[in-house]
Amino acid sequence: MTEAVGRQGQQSQRGDKATAEGKARKRGGALRIERVHTTAGVHPYDEVRWERRDVVMTNWRDGSINFEQRGVEFPESWSVNATNIVTSKYFRGAVGSPQRESSLRQLIDRVVSTYVAAGVEHGYFGSDEDAQVFEHELTWMLLHQVFSFNSPVWFNVGTASPQQVSACFILSVDDTMESILNWYREEGLIFKGGSGAGLNLSRIRSSKELLSSGGTASGPVSFMRGADASAGTIKSGGATRRAAKMVVLDVDHPDIGEFVQTKLREEEKIRVLRDGGFDMDLGGADIASVQYQNANNSVRVSDEFMRAVEDDAQFGLRARLTGEVIEKVSARGLFRDIAEAAWACADPGVQYDDTINDWHTCPESGRITASNPCSEYLHLDNSSCNLASLNLLKFLGEDGEFDAVRFTKSVELVITAMDISICFADFPTEPIGETTRAFRQLGIGYANLGALLMATGRAYDSEGGRALAAAISSLMTGVAYRRSAELAGVVGSYDGYARNAEAHQRVMRKHAAANDAIRTLHPMDTGVHRLATKAWQQCLKTGEKNGWRNAQASVLAPTGTIGLMMDCDTTGIEPDLALVKFKKLVGGGSMQIVNQTVPRALGALGYPTEQVEAIVEYVAEQGHVVDAPSLKPEHYEVFDCAMGERSIPAMGHVRMMAAVQPFISGAISKTVNMPESATVEDVEEIYQQGWKLGLKALAIYRDNCKVGQPLSNAKPKAAEAEEPKTVVVESRPVRRRLPKKRPSQTVSFTVGGAEGYLHAGSYPDDGLGEIFIKLGKQGSTLAGVMDAFSMSISVGLQYGIPLEFYVSKFCNQRFEPAGMTDDPDIRIATSVLDYLFRRLALDYLPYEKRAQLGIFSADERTEQVADSYGSEVDLDALRSTVEATPAAQEQAQSEESTSAPLAAGSSTELIELRQGKVADAPLCLTCGTKMRPAGSCYVCEGCGSTSGCS
Predict the structure, then answer these.
(1) 287: left (phi over 0), alpha (psi -120 to 50) or beta
(2) 412 an active-site residue?
(3) Model confidence, pTM
(4) Of the residues 297, 372, 515, 595, which is catalytic?
(5) pLDDT (tens digit, 9 = 90+) per residue, 347-358?
């Protein structure tokens, strides 16, 4: 009843605002909103089954609670993971207070009501009925996970905070100290609001140029240090994620060589410091001493430079103020340096300047010089872009057909909502607000492409996969721009359109021409492409008459957190990570499951139910489809993933990006993964092919190239051990700390007349985690040595060294005090350490492990003697409590690598356990879970935190 009254109140408020409708309209028309998903007279909330859940999020490594809110309300269809992430990330209000949101209804109402009210106020709707239909349709799509706005919308809209809706910002910096210091300030404000920023530093004079005072300029790289330190201290979005930033430098800047080498030198520093015993894990105590780690670096390359690389010609580096060439370098040598740095540490990426600006809708207002941190948003300096992404798998029907008509209507609704948000949005700086309101850049995109392709029986790296992806992308952007032209007829074109009309129309024609060049291979592709062609034709016709409401319409973002919110199997344009995934369960716990797209794909390929079940069972056991029963080898490629037995080659990723890029206003957030065995020449080839294929931006990541990356404790399988390589990549285990409250026990003991105490602390899920030994008087040498010894053993246990390893090493140590003990299970000890580790083995190791070490309790020895009654007693077996045989010790040591139980906290860790290969993904700073790739960023499946701006 309360909710119904609330909704009526909202509609009443909209009715009051509707009186101002005529004043708000710039033109005579108004939008008519039709129902697509909803039913007249039925609210979307009344069509779903709701349930109450408890959200308790723990650090899976030590069991500590990161977040807790009980009794939250969500639809039954929402997964536990989506529930956890939305509750912890997006619900507003202090936890535990009555003001705290506790239902998905409250969250959606908070956002949707703000959008509807702004749409009414600014004259978007033809009537109150249109406004209500818009409200219901938007609510239904969010409720059913059809699409999601970017995270800042959920953080800020409808709250007392500034209504910042944009995730992506591009800043500007000039060659003055005032501008440089203002750059630091603006970045801080953006990070605080939950977003990321990028900028080009090429206007700053190089270290090879003079100041007006006669001194030498510092150069842009020196100023990057200050900005990097500032970013490292700011957590954006409250405490939701770290600052994300992009730094770009033109390839003709005289300091380009130093810029290329910055992160490479820091990676070398990380290796040296780590080997020296410093804590260089991500978030470690000493990592702050390393510079340039908070930004992605990219080199802005021109066609002139790339042609010089091909011709092995000289290339001029130009002074910033005069433009004159002050130094000539080998283009091929500089390109080689870029590739070597990327091969060694993944930075820098490249941005193709001439391609970017050839697709620029507003060149009369300035060049595009930079991007946001993940490289998908490219437009004017001091501007922003708000994002939203559609869940493609929601448009795949049970009949295996993609519902292009419903997709079209959904794009129309979402792009309308996104444009409305600019009417009420706040911005971190006034220049950004002015530019965004004048050009109204939007970034509609999608997620779950990889899952869609697999579910329809298409390989990601195939002509069929690329054809469907291109057709869907073309349809999305064509419909978005068509709706933008229709909006221009209702509320006016963007302010900068008149000056850029000719250029904007030219880019629209380029998109339409690229659409005509799509080669379809399947009836589904043909149907989608037919609608896309119609959308572009209407777009050009309507735009020529009205202009366009938005200078930019689409991007492909990482969709990290919002992808998890929508329960997507894949993020952005990415393929599936692996065929077996990690899933959280209601009531706690987790399990590994075969991705649901696998049986769907097998059905699309024509396999009968019995064979599908057998193949799925095989995949669950093996983690891949190679040699699966009844599966045809020609279908293996359909199940190729980013990781696994059959991983997609690097050029497969590049070819997919190239197929989609002509239909995206901005660019594509994606990192091209390369195997550890890839060479510098392979990186050069990828960067050259990206230029030739018309990409706007490209970044690569070679496995294990980041020496400072925190790794999990998954160990390679012996059968998969490889021959030593030229490049040796070292890794460190991760410390699993004990929670503040933990179970423990204290044992008093006497060995050879010496009295002492053993205190042992355990993890809540069992397993020894610390010991403290009191022996001798306080302040004595013996007491001090035992304290230090205890700390050493405790830290080792927390870093994953198995207890049985310590037992095998310290049992049978012989020194005084030694002799009789007061422990009925261990009557004689050869030393205090011999006693202590036998006691620990009895208390914390299973019988099988102790039997290998020859350690038994008194009852177990009695049982052994009883079993041998009537025969000759094996005295050696009875003596085994005093001295384990060398063979037993060797056997215990041989099992060191497999004795500790391995657990997974995310899909990435599950893949590591299956493949025996440690991934380079970072650990989540919030919950300690290993993250998984999402575009050019990483996302945590446990809590939704991201390493970037998605």
Answers:
(1) alpha
(2) no
(3) 0.78
(4) 372
(5) 999 999 999 999
